[in-house]
TrEMBL record:
Keyword field: Membrane, Transmembrane, Transmembrane helix
Protein name (database record): DUF3667 domain-containing protein
Membrane-spanning segments: 77-95, 125-145, 157-180, 186-204, 216-243
Pfam families named among the record's database cross-references: DUF3667
Coiled coil: none
Source organism: Flavobacterium litorale
Source organism superkingdom: Bacteria
InterPro entries: DUF3667
Length: 244
């Protein structure tokens, strides 16, 4: 049913969508058939479409996708930070059902009460701990890739796409691990190494037009060194807090 005024905000309508709030002008009475065929299936399809597109872009062209997003081409993308939280939740679920989690618990959860507190803290706050990868990548790229002339939050977008690709790869690596199956273990280990290569891909795509090969190479080496030092510092801090 077409209306001359938006039923949501009352604005005069020209076209298929309200220019003020974006609601469709063609509304339907809610019936069981319409709810099942349109509201449910249509909504689920578009949700999956946005998620799958965002994951595909993050895995294949994280740097270019980030630049597109920064430039304002955002309609087709699902919110990457919500998506990262979803992927992290799936990683934790998968990790709690693998042999590696059981082996870790047996190796660490001994009679030392301090170790138990540290592991309990990590298990409780693993999401924000892993999420610190995003600002760490952003800080390093903001310092090293100044020719991009992007502000810090725009570097956060780049690190967000990069981190999403890393998290999705880690999820696949954990999910395919089968107990006592050497083939899946090999593929899983390979995927973890692939995961570490996404910053190279992302920042090459972002900065290839701004830096020559050696300029990109030394920045990349320094980028990883800084990231390693930052991660070691964070781990050391929590170790000192809980074990000393």
């Amino acid at each position: 049913m077409q209306h001359n005024e938006c039923l949501n905000c009352g604005t005069t309508i020209v076209g298929k969508y309200c220019s003020n709030c974006g609601q469709k002008t063609d509304t339907h009475r809610i019936t069981f058939k319409h709810f099942l065929a349109h509201e449910m299936l249509h909504g689920v399809w578009h949700l999956e479409k946005g998620i799958l597109f965002t994951v595909k872009e993050a895995l294949t062209r994280p740097g270019y996708a980030a630049l597109d997003y920064i430039a304002g081409k955002r309609f087709r993308y699902y919110n990457m930070f919500y998506l990262m939280l979803l992927v992290l939740a799936l990683i934790l679920f998968a990790a709690h059902h693998t042999e590696s989690k059981e082996a870790f618990d047996e190796a660490v959860l001994d009679d030392d009460d301090n170790y138990q507190k540290l592991v309990q803290f990590i298990d409780t706050y693993i999401k924000p701990i892993l999420f610190t990868l995003v600002p760490l990548l952003a800080i390093n790229s903001y310092v090293l890739y100044r020719r991009l002339k992007l502000n810090f939050l725009e570097h956060v977008i780049i690190s967000g796409f990069t981190s999403l690709a890393m998290f999705v790869t880690a999820l696949v690596a954990i999910a395919i691990t089968v107990k006592y199956h050497p083939v899946t273990d090999f593929i899983s280990d390979l995927l973890f190494w692939v995961m570490l290569l996404f910053p190279i891909l992302a920042y090459y795509q972002v900065s290839a037009s701004k830096y020559k090969f050696w300029g990109f190479a030394w920045r990349l080496v320094l980028f990883y060194l800084l990231l390693i030092l930052e991660i070691i510092s964070i781990i050391s801090f929590f170790t000192i807090v809980f074990l000393l």
